[in-house]
Every structure is written in C-alpha cells, then in structure tokens.
C-alpha cells in the first residue's frame, strides 16, 4: 500500500515551505488510496516542544490534512538502540572521537592539498586499547555509519536521475556522544519499519537521501521512492525558517486566509499546472502530478492568497457562516439577506464585521461641498421605513424628478452619504439592511 509521511521537527511553527512537503505527501497517499503518517521528529530534546507539536497538529487539521497514524520518535528510542546494535554487529557503525576543532583542522588540511574535505575514517583504524586510552583522557565516543564507497543512484520523482559518489560524502554521524540518535538514522529506521513507500521532501535533503538509502539497505530494508522539491522562499527570495516563524501557517490562519485558498495555491505553485481554486482535497489529489513540478527555487507571495480567499468566501453557502453571523449580533430574520449582500464585498470573513457595523450604526456620511444642498434635499425625501428592495429605485426616481440629476451624479452622492464609501453592495439590496442613516 502507498504509504507516505510528513516528518517535521516540533521546533517552531510550520511555514508554507513545510506545508509544501506535507501536502505533496498527503496528496500522493490520497490519490493512491494509501496511508499518510504524521511523524514528529522530536529526538532533539532541547529544541522540541509540546506546544509546537500541538501547533503542527492544529495547522494540519485546519487544512483538513488529517493523518491515518501519528508517531513520535521520542517513543521509539529503544528501537533505535536495537537498530544501532544491528549495524554495529554488521560492522557498519564505528566509534570516533575527534572534536569539532580537530575535524575542522583536518578539513582545512585536505582543502589546502586540493582534496575534498571528506572524513578520513581515522576512527575506523583505532584499536580497542587506543579507544580505551582516549576515553581515559576524558573523550567521549560518538558513532559514524560506514558508507559503501559506490555510487548511490535513484530515479528522483522531481529532479530526475541522481547519482552521487559515496566517496565524496563523509560517513554520517548517527549517534552523538550523549546518546542522542540523529535525524538521519532515526528517520531511516522509521521509514523502513513503517513501510513508507514514497518520500517527497525538500532539496535540502538530497545528500541525506544518498546516505539514508545505504542505511536502509544495511538494515535489510528497501528504500522508498524519493522526490525532492525545490525550497520555497519569500517574495524577495528570503529564506523561510521555523525558528523565525516567517510565513507560518498559524499567522496565515489568523490573518483570515481560507484553507482552500492556501491548499489550492500550494498544490500547484512551482508546477506547470495553473493555480485554480479547488474546494476539496479530492479534487486537488485528482489533478496532482509530481512530474509537473520543476527543480528551480519557487517564490511564495502571500498576496496571491487573497484573490483565492475572496473567491472561496464569496461562494460559501449561508449555512457555513450562519453561526458566525449570529455571533456578530445580526438578527436571525435579516441574517440570510445580510450574507447575500455582504459576501460580494469581502475578502476575509472578518470583513463582515465592518459591513454589519455600517448597517447597524450607520456610516459617517461623505458629502462633497458641491453636493451638499442636493444631498440634504434628497435625504428629506427618504421614504418612511420599512425599506424594501424597491426603496432605492422609488427614492432615487423621486429625487431625479425633483432635482433633474441623473446617472452617476445622482447615485454616487447618495451612496457616499449613506455608506461613507464610493463602492460597495448594490444600493437596492443594501437599503433594506440599513438600520441607521446619520442624516436621517
Ligand atoms: N523553505 C522550504 N521550502 C520547502 N520545503 C521546506 C522548506 N523548509 C523546510 N522544508 C521541508 O519541510 C520538511 C520538514 O522539515 P523540518 O521540520 O526539518 O523543517 P525546517 O523548516 O527545515 O526546520 P528548522 O527550521 O527547524 O531547521 C522537510 O521535508 C523540509 O525539506
């Protein structure tokens, strides 16, 4: 069965770049009728926080990206210890003792001699006595995976055929001196154990993929299909970061972005397919095609979300907003009409508040000096309440007959006097909802 996963570290609020990864994996599983795993990569005890783990779940739920299974790496530490023993027994995990300063020095020497700065495997040659002596000096051992120095190749779902010479890559550190299992290892163990068949992730992981393919093979597993999408940047090319909270899903939600707008943009951004509003994840999954995505960096501009949000909100049925409108204090008998009028003039649902305030409390009239007499005369002619859909036509007809004004010169000063704005809903539809007119 097709099984995908989204594996964020709960070290901040996830951003639109992380969403690109989550959504692609979700859509692949959904399209294939497979399974989507949310895996919290929380082995970094200092940086991982429960509030961020909760935040990630809230963000995904907001978008409807529900998972079939949730896993936490912190629950699986025994399993990683077991897998490490298996690699040690197979001679693929070896203990090393170099400090960061020593490694730095080695790299500089290699570079000076025109050689690539790849770890020289000095640790592999240490005898048990030498290791004991290093420990006696107070040094702590940590563990590297011994790569097979072949070429590592895979057909990437986005960037095409990849071939990496393992000899040009340092043996990765899998376990730190304090026993912390690093991402490269924990992730490989999980992907094998959990039967993950497809992994889409950022291009920042290409080298990881090369080493993880070997780690999975060393554990007797079959590596999944891989695809690496380009990283998203902000509109000016700026990097996104969970730690800085740039373009976080939480902020976009609080700003009133419609979930369908964000999903519709993210499922197509950076692909050859046009962006169009889709109202369901099934529709998005149906048209989703990884091979349509390019490898070049992709810019994300939050401004692109507003036209889609506007389109989405304008199509919401009354039932979807009834509770919200009731909570604003709109009386039940006018609520459906209020929605029918206001929805054509909002982007965010929060914009409804302004329209209701205007209808309930009236607007500060805007009256140009040259229209002052005309407006006063027209307002004196306002028909008695209740106002209906016919009121605007009847009133302006009578004003036209009395003043000789017509067209824009007739309608615009009256709109501005009643609403304080030169744009907005059809006045005929608005009049019955206007509870207060200040020059009444
Ligand atoms: N700017 C980005 N554009 C697209 N994908 C990204 C971007 N940044 C991270 N990702 C992807 O998000 C997924 C989750 O990764 P991770 O939790 O490590 O996020 P991160 O933002 O890189 O983290 P941190 O800022 O904490 O280092 C990975 O597949 C990673 O490739």
From TrEMBL:
GO cellular component: cytoplasm
GO BP field: glutamyl-tRNA aminoacylation
One example GO MF annotation: tRNA binding
Name the record gives this protein: Glutamate--tRNA ligase
Positions of short motif 'KMSKS' region: 239-243
Start and end residues of each Glutamyl/glutaminyl-tRNA synthetase class Ib catalytic domain: 3-306
Recorded family membership: Belongs to the class-I aminoacyl-tRNA synthetase family. Glutamate--tRNA ligase type 1 subfamily.
Residue span(s) of domain Aminoacyl-tRNA synthetase class I anticodon-binding: 375-434
Root EC class: ligase
Keyword ATP-binding (UniProt): yes
Pfam families (UniProt xref): Anticodon_2, tRNA-synt_1c
Record localization: Cytoplasm
